[in-house]
## 1
Amino acid sequence: MTTTAAPATTAPQPPRPIRLFLVDDHPLVRDGLRARLGAMPNLEIVGEAGSGAEALVLLDTLRCDLMLVDVGMKDMNGIDLAALVLQRDQQPTHPAPHIVMLSMYDNPEYVQKAMQVGARGYVLKDAPAAEIVAAIEAVSAGGTFLSPAVSKKLFRNQAPRPLLTPRESEILTALGRGESSKQIARDLSLSVRTVEAHRQSIKRRLGIEGQAELIKYAVEHAREFGQG
């Protein structure tokens, strides 16, 4: 009697770590970030720069998934650097990295400018390490992230609208009218799953946690977001 060996099974490969590039003109800040983030098992710090100009030079050869960029650098502010990085011609196999701004300032004007040039996150430098990690993970997964303190200040200044895409504004307006995800999907010719994904994105962008809080916000701001 002959027996056949069971086919060998291939162990699943662990996910590739997020490749992070640090840009800050204060060496002590970079040291602190390395100490706080270097222990993350799914993160690899592949480079760092002390200025915007140095970062642009390194990006010619450095491949990274995400950049953590200081807003208030002396030679070139981080928002201008983000704009340059995201406007550069990228090879199809090496798309532009996502960018999270790291700042001492919770000024709504800075936040709006950062998001308008294409940054996907804005975190305060004095935020807990867990918040910076959450921003990296959310943005790497294709989402957005604002420090809660930043979101609250945006609300007080009544300036959240620039942070939403036109589609998200449509959905928020519909939520403010009391429509369900199923109704919104039918009216906008979308799938319910797509509408739910937009709802999650809206919550992340506006720093809102629960569905009830989202509906309350939508009702209070429906007129604003419904304007042309």
## 2
Amino acid sequence: MENEIKSHYNYTEVINWLEAKGVELYGNHFKILETDYPIVYKLIAYFLKDEPTCFQLHINLNKGILLTGPIGCGKTSLMNLMKYLTATEHKFYVKPCRDISFEFIQDGYQIIHKYSKGKLYEADPRTICFDDLGTENNLKYYGNECNVMAEILLSRYDLFISKKLQTHITTNLSASEIEKQYGNRVRSRLRELCNLIAFNNVAKDKRK
């Protein structure tokens, strides 16, 4: 695939650097498999804002990333590594969806505001990668059931349209499972909100 990419970046060198960073973060067992290179090339192109390569790979730099694939294929590790390639103005942080659901139990509806509109004058980057979408549960707060992530994603979609705010997501869910869990409105808006980058359904579980 690298032969097809016409870029001023050396993607082999970038992958080697990312692999070394992965070993530093996750231990000596960390490796980026060659079978995953097509996925990793797309992520590198996006996070380095390599416009010619993104154009070739049909990636829209205005949108976020929706990284899907089976459990254990390395989605979270890759997104954590991409933080080190990202320019300051595009920095993001990774937030597990389960943690957000626990915060909602404790603090209620202000958590939806926190992860969509954010706090006034906050110094943290507003771009967020919501990790493992689908692992959180619908929760009740004072008896009212709320699909917390659906509300957050709908709010962030409005901010994407009005302020170009980007959102990244990792998930094991398929498009039809997303629709079942979050509704057609969320599925439809995710198409506009994110570039879909998908591991093969039979991608190896690296945790085994």
## 3
Amino acid sequence: MADTWVIVGLGNPGPRYEATRHNIGQMVVDELAARRSESFRAHKANARVAETWLRPGGPKLVLAKPNSFMNVSGGPAAGLARFYDVAPERIIVVHDELDIPYDTVKLKTGGGHGGHNGVRDVAKALGTAEFPRVRVGIGRPVGRQDPADWVLDPFGATERQTLPILVSDAADAVEMLVAEGLVAAQQRFHAPRA
């Protein structure tokens, strides 16, 4: 499909994980669906999917939330790529990023997975790491907390005050990446805030 983009929000399934840092990718995909008054439905690729458009007459967006756990996100992502006949460069993976400060959005294509098992599994399943990523900063835990526990904790009270803005910024980054390309989106979202 010529102008189709698959946007995969990484996370873990079920109510236990909905509000956790690891699920911010799915929160962003929820925001993109809400902006278009779309709801998700089951898809045979083991994901929940909402099909919509960037704007009327614009590129088609397939918003997807894998039903699998984070570490095995690759199967649903690859299944959606096959179903919609979309090349890896048109699969945008939205995920949490420990190595970026909270309240920051960064974009890149390719490169390593930075220890993120969801990204690692998507790259393995697609057979390439050359797919665009919207990386949503969650920061590292303070003190001795294990990062593996940190990502599965809900956002703290202070973080929750600005979380809707962060999710909205990340959704804006996805839209700009589709509309104007990676470099334009990087120039906007990587610039220091005024």
